[in-house]
């Protein structure tokens, strides 16, 4: 009898501990509502020409294509929507096409505050500027916005990503990073002061040209 009571008590303690780790008493089943809604709002802003996000339905966004969650807390920590058919390092600009087109990077993504991996390469953002809220993902270690047709000024808020180890904002086929001796730019510009705020990089790729596009 004593042994049975001890086993039950240990199970209760285990459940309480798991509940505390998840921020409430009980198990987290699937992803968190706010994060699921944020992903759905982001999807609404995409023209998914190849229906790559057809799996984005149902309550558990952790099971959706391109979405990864923490095994314990079920918070989204990974978003990978790169086009597997896109090779940004071997392309013909005349034949360039995107399987996803977006008017902008929707601010709803700030709900994914635990993100440590964000891969949005080869999505057409139609010359829009990289938004400043990209600097709010304080846990981000990997950021790839290459070949995504961003334009404008690269925001200094990227300097807030002190845990970042890989950054790729290279190769946009229709918007160019042009830097002259005074760090003035054409079409896409960058203030390099934010770089000094970042942590130790494993890899960084910034595509720089010295001539404006014809």
TrEMBL record:
PROSITE patterns: PROKAR_LIPOPROTEIN (PS51257). It comes from the Eukaryota. Gene3D superfamilies: Ribonuclease Inhibitor. Keywords: Glycoprotein, Leucine-rich repeat, Membrane, Repeat, Signal, Transmembrane, Transmembrane helix. Residues 32-70 form the Leucine-rich repeat-containing N-terminal plant-type domain. The keyword Ribonucleoprotein does not apply. The keyword Nucleus does not apply. It is a single-pass type I membrane protein. Its main location: membrane. One of its GO terms (cellular component) is membrane. It is found in: Membrane. Residues 1-20 form the signal peptide. Pfam families: LRRNT_2 (PF08263). InterPro entries: LRR_dom_sf, LRR_N_plant-typ, RLP23-like. PANTHER family: LRR RECEPTOR-LIKE KINASE, RECEPTOR LIKE PROTEIN 30-LIKE. This is Leucine-rich repeat-containing N-terminal plant-type domain-containing protein. It comes from Saponaria officinalis (Common soapwort). The lineage of its organism: Eukaryota, Viridiplantae, Streptophyta, Embryophyta, Tracheophyta.
């Amino acid at each position: 009898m004593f042994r049975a009571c001890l086993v039950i008590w240990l199970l209760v303690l285990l459940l309480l501990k798991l509940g505390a780790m998840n921020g409430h008493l009980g198990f987290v089943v699937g992803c968190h509502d706010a994060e699921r809604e944020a992903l759905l709002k982001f999807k609404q802003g995409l023209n998914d020409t190849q229906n790559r996000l057809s799996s984005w339905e149902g309550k558990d966004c952790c099971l959706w294509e391109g979405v990864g969650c923490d095994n314990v807390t079920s918070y989204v920590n990974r978003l990978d929507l790169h086009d597997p058919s896109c090779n940004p390092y071997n392309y013909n600009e005349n034949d360039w096409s995107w399987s996803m087109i977006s008017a902008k990077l929707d601010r709803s993504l700030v709900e994914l505050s635990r993100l440590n991996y964000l891969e949005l390469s080869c999505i057409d953002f139609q010359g829009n500027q990289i938004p400043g809220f990209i600097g709010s993902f304080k846990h981000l270690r990997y950021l790839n916005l290459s070949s995504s047709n961003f334009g404008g000024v690269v925001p200094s808020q990227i300097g807030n990503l002190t845990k970042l180890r890989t950054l790729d904002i290279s190769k946009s086929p229709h918007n160019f990073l042009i830097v002259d001796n005074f760090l003035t730019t054409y079409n896409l510009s960058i203030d390099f002061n934010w770089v000094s705020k970042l942590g130790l990089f494993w890899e960084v790729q910034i595509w720089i040209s010295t001539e404006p596009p014809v």
